[in-house]
Amino acid sequence: MSQPANQFGDVPGTSPNSVALSIDGSEVTVPDGTTILEACGGKGCDIPTLCYGDTITPKNACRVCMVEVEGSRVLVPSCSRQVEADMVVHTRSERVDHARKMVLELLGSSVDLSLTEHVDDWYAEYGADPSRYGPDAATVAQPVKVDNDLYIRDYAKCILCYQCVDACGEQWQHSFVIDIAGRGFDARVSTENDVSLPDSACVYCGNCIQVCPTGALMFKSEYDMRQTGTWEPERQTTTDTICAFCGVGCNLTLHVQDNTIIKVSSPSDSPITHGNLCIKGRFGFQHAQNRPDSAG
User: Fold this and answer.
1) CATH code, 151-289
2) How far apart are the C-alpha atoms of 149 and 155, rounded to whole Å?
3) Residues in CB range of 184: below 8 A, 6 or more apart
4) Which of these, 21, 166, 200, 220, could form a disulfide with 191 (CB 3.0-4.6 Å)?
């Protein structure tokens, strides 16, 4: 992946293959092959992203990162459109803001985005009001799938970003357990023949959870705590460590609340894991906190 620029700044160490362009009136020079989003600072810059992940090839699914390029008839997805010499990009304009407002309203009226980071801020910034479609707006509401002890699937929160499908498939795990089934409002992430996870080929690596942006996939431990009202992110801490199950040296981030590990993730920028783990690294943490009975 190309090295991102600072906010509208040149990328260090650019080469003769660099490309110069204009972004919101600022001249930027980046390596050839850089996307517009990367040129603007990557994930976390002022361009909103929902379906974009820094370890998965963009699918251009959510359309909330669209920007305006002079000379282009339509808005373009900044997550996948590569820069070109002398390109003039506007990340904010009347067309861009209107498009983002409509995308946010359409998604928010049909999908539960309550656990999606930054969405409330984007609603306010772009004046989006999903409720204006009324209570009869078609939704993808459905029961939470709880069929194993490791993670749950709440597809009422799914925006069909394809990240879990790609992480399970050819881009990382190569298990090919899930794919998109159905069309329209019936479109959904599904196992083959819609069988339960225990009856599927799932190896429970949890890499799908790692890339899910909306909370549609969630550790069972987190789900249970949210159900009982004991999930308190403001009281949680994270500690980076190395997995001890084998000699590969996978990086782990332990999420801890009340001196108890509640879930495990992996840094997406780790050169070893790129955010991916196996079942032991992702879910095999209980041995680290088995405490002897105080009465014994």
Assistant:
1) 2.20.25.90
2) 18
3) none
4) 200
